[in-house]
Amino acid sequence: MSMLMSVATIVPTSVPRCNVDVNGELSANYTASVRKFSSRRSRTSFAARSCISASVEENMTNAAEGSVPASQDVLASSSVSSSSTASPRPWSTKVLGSALAATLTLAQALSPFPENFPGSWSVPPAEAVLYSPDTKVPRSAEVALRRAIPVVNPSMRKMQESLEDIFYLLRIPQRKSYGSMESDVKRALQLALEDKDAILAAVPADMKQKGLDLYNDIIGPRGLEKMLEAIANKDPDKVSIRLANTLEKIAELEIIQAPGLAFLPPATYQDYPRLTGRATIALKLEKGDGSSFTVASGGGPQKTAVLEIVLDGYSAPLTAGNFSDLVLKGKYNGIKLRTGEQSILCDDQGDGVGNTLPLEVLPAGEFQPLYQTTLNVQDGEIPVLPLSVYGAVAMAHNTAAEDYSSPSQFFFYLYDKRNAGLGGLAFDEGQFSVFGYVTKGKELLSQLKTGDIIQSATMISGQDKLVVPNSSS
């Protein structure tokens, strides 16, 4: 049994479970991939067990025929000393032990033994997710927002996924896989050409021309064609630039295709303001001590600076809608900020303004958000808008109940992988209503201190997506 124990410790199973891979990125189609992968792992486990059973049965047959002493226990053979007085035989216990160790090692690599081995051979779904190479959690605001756009045309999403694979190929520090990059781009181009009519048919009538212009930008000389040229020249910098530009155009076209929500909030919250798409908020900041900001665009020290937040009403319509409504009412003008170890909190405890907001989280793979419910990352639940992104914007908890958000107090999350859990996920992942991300002025977040002020908050786009029922005005 000593050999079995040594093999079983090769891959620890009693580690915290969360749904990440080495790249730390999560697929938007997460739930389906989890089920598929869990099923595949179950079949792999069965195959591995069959292989082990066959190997043990063969060895026992050899024992019955005299090749191995029948009294020799197969698992205990590893502990037999090489000085055994048994008569010479074709299959020595040492060789048998090595073969069994190799078999168990392979089985362990394919399907880690559960904690209650040997009582159960099943692999819990969350553990299967931990080892899934398809699990990808967004690590930037741009990627998270792009993946949060509802799928209207499947070909558009397949194009996006094919091109996003190139981001991972570009991370390889030495030899780049330009052949795989070329295949990904050609696959995306083929999808765009073959499904052109359906792609453009999903664009609203009043946006047809803009949709056509975006489509041509994607497939034309400034898009996929230019990317193929950069790949042929093996220029990773140009590939990265072309890739970012093309994915931005794809996201724009997908947003045009999804002009509103595909669901209605629960009847309880029908009278709440809701954002039915995307909106952009500009926060003008000033230092409370009279010092200056340093901005990425240059120009020297500045007394005021602006950061922009993109709100995602697709994933958090009530939370983003409430925030937008408060911005228009001037709620955040003159509000001070308070900094913490990993967050910057709006120093506002509420004054009756705003709605009694339920916690609102959209799990990946689900059709609409969950309300008053947190997610359990260890059980494979990951939000479409993860907190584990630098510059995530979320509502603080209500002081009376954690299944409700504060009516008006929000915070910026300063994600730091060094202070995160397994796979780089924040320990509070799935516990707050994330409703947007800082997309411009991220460099300002690290410069903010307690006492700094939001001089003004302005809605610069998306007001047409805000629905404010009369009863909440």
Automatic annotation (TrEMBL):
Organism: Marchantia polymorpha
Keywords, in A-Z order: Thylakoid
Name of the protein in its database record: PPIase cyclophilin-type domain-containing protein
Residue ranges of every copy of the PPIase cyclophilin-type domain listed in the record: 292-473
PROSITE patterns, sorted: CSA_PPIASE_2
GO function terms (MF aspect): peptidyl-prolyl cis-trans isomerase activity
Pfam families listed in its UniProt record: CYP38_PsbQ-like, Pro_isomerase
Domain of life: Eukaryota
GO CC, alphabetical: chloroplast; chloroplast thylakoid lumen
Gene3D superfamilies membership: Cyclophilin-like, Oxygen-evolving enhancer protein 3 (PsbQ), four-helix up-down bundle
